[in-house]
Amino acid sequence: MNLWQQYIRPTTVAEAITALTSAPGPALPLAGGTDILLDLQQGRHSPVHTIVDLTEIPEMKSLELRDERLFIGAGVPLSRIARDPLVVTHARALVEACDLVGGPQVRNVATLGGNVAHALPAADGTIGLLCLDAEAEVTGLHGSRCVPLPELFVGPGKSALQSGEIIVGFYIQTYAQGGVPLTGTFLAAGNGDGRTYASCFKRIMRPQGVALPIINLAIWLERNGNTIKQIRIAVGPGGAVPFRARKAEAFLADRPYSDETFKTALEALVAEVKFRTSAMRATSEYRYHLVGTLLKDTLETAWERAG
Ligand SMILES: Cc1cc2nc3c(=O)[nH]c(=O)nc-3n(C[C@H](O)[C@H](O)[C@H](O)COP(=O)(O)OP(=O)(O)OC[C@H]3O[C@@H](n4cnc5c(N)ncnc54)[C@H](O)[C@@H]3O)c2cc1C
């Protein structure tokens, strides 16, 4: 059986939207194909009429600073994100997340847009982006909108994208503004008033085989001396959608970094996270058992980077 009838390779976002919305049957965007081709081949996704390949659209391959924000095109391969100096400088957690996905062959074709659009709660790129408070630029027949990342997810494997909509790219706030030099070597960005910013992504993974981690965690924080001014913590798979530990974040904000604060923050995180058992990866109990160690490890690294 043919998995599709028609394969289109547009060169602009507008052409891609037209191809998706005017197809005479079900149509799907395709980027690296590392998720969707397997889903089609293995019957998890029904055959479609039209595949719209997004890989020839220059705008979706762009990676640049726009005003004070970093723009990463949804079609940029993960291997490029992991070594791009702008991302290394402004979004270290994303570098670490992208660099751990699959192996080199997967990372050379897999994209951040595909990682996010697939909407899995523990997708590594998604968890890295979530701690960075990224926004997605979404375009469809009725124009473009910027969507805060958490609003893109509806449930496991279900995004809020409407039929015919695509993610064009992602925006991330940068923190080295006004020509102020960075502190550290690509590790922390500061704005010259004593506040510094850093991020970190880590995961615990089975040594071989399955694509997604047992558990992953990403942290962005603002540090001022010995105080955590602001913090964002993303954990996968911490619920039906990519999870932010908002109670733990609220507790940690404006507090000194200490063993005592860490202990209470972990209790807050454990009370709100909802780990489940995945047949191929880990039991829920095992994830609860691991999360404290991973939180401490990731927080310590982000804290030191911001120092
Ligand atoms: C061997 C192997 C190992 C893997 N390891 C990992 C891992 O360690 N961590 C991890 O997180 N993932 C892993 N993955 C999963 C996969 O590689 C990633 O999720 C990848 O980022 C998907 O990107 P893609 O470009 O290949 O997406 P595709 O397969 O092309 O698309 C995925 C979905 O997103 C949609 N889509 C793609 N681009 C857009 C867009 N711009 N706008 C709207 N919809 C879009 C497609 O229609 C499809 O539904 C692995 C996969 C394999 C095969």
Structure description:
By secondary structure, the protein is an alpha+beta fold. It has 3 domains: about 5-55, Uridine Diphospho-n-acetylenolpyruvylglucosamine Reductase, domain 2 (2-Layer Sandwich); about 60-175, Uridine Diphospho-n-acetylenolpyruvylglucosamine Reductase, domain 3; about 190-305, CO dehydrogenase flavoprotein, C-terminal domain (Enolase-like, domain 1, 2-Layer Sandwich). About 35% of the residues lie in helices and about 30% in strands. The protein is built from 11 helices and 16 strands. It has helices spanning about 15-20, 35-40, 80-85, 85-90, 90-100, 105-110, 110-115, 125-130, 245-250, 260-270, 285-305, and strands spanning about 5-10, 25-30, 50-55, 65, 70-75, 135-140, 145-150, 155, 160, 165-175, 190, 195-205, 215-225, 225-235, 245, 255. The strands form 4 sheets. Strands 11, 12, 13, 14, 15 and 16 form a 6-stranded antiparallel sheet that branches. A 5-stranded antiparallel sheet has the order 4-5-10-6-7. Strand 6 and strand 7 form a beta hairpin. Flavin-adenine dinucleotide (FAD) binds next to strand 2, helix 2, helix 7, helix 8 and strand 10.
